[in-house]
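wait is this the right file?? whatever heres the structure
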């Protein structure tokens, strides 16, 4: 009789550490997949995502072609977003370390949206640069995040590049087309 009462107790004791471990897991980050998230090139990006970005641990997401880091998720990645057209309304910045061109949207600062320029499919990275307000020094550097994600994003071959405004041609104001 003693052995039959002990077996369930031992089994329950074995489950307690497992339950404690599962209770400590961060919840899955709910994201919407981009329209072209099923693009095979996005799979090449996703399998190369780093375990940490800007010192933040990777989290599980519920959508194809996505990645998330931090608790709460301070860095979000979506592959397969619409490929942006050339624009003068967003700054186009080139990371000097890896040559990846990004369109930077800071209209919702301190949340910054970076979208690859000249790559198809496009990758979008959203960075909450404030970090956790309860943790000192938990700010996220957009620059660091972009550099650390470059290895994955570089799987998409660039088709176009950013150009400086000084590299563009403008019509000469003094010349007019011959209309005769």
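ok assuming it is, sequence goes like this
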């Amino acid at each position: 009789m003693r052995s039959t009462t002990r077996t369930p107790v031992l089994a329950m004791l074995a489950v307690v550490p497992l339950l404690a471990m599962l209770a400590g897991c961060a919840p899955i980050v709910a994201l919407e997949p981009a329209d072209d998230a099923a693009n095979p090139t996005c799979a090449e990006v996703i399998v190369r995502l780093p375990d940490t970005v800007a010192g933040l641990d990777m989290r599980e997401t519920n959508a194809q072609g996505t990645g998330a880091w931090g608790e709460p998720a301070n860095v979000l990645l979506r592959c397969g977003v619409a490929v942006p057209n050339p624009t003068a309304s967003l700054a186009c910045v080139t990371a000097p370390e890896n040559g990846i061109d990004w369109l930077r949207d800071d209209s919702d600062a301190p949340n910054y949206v970076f979208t690859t320029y000249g790559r198809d499919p496009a990758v979008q990275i959203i960075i909450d640069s404030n970090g956790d307000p309860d943790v000192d020094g938990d700010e996220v550097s957009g620059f660091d995040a972009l550099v650390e994600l470059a290895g994955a994003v570089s799987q998409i071959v660039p088709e176009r590049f950013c150009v400086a405004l000084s590299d563009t041609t403008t019509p000469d104001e003094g010349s007019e087309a011959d209309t005769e």
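Confidence is low (pLDDT under 50) at residues 1-23, 132-137, 173-180. so i think its the right one actually
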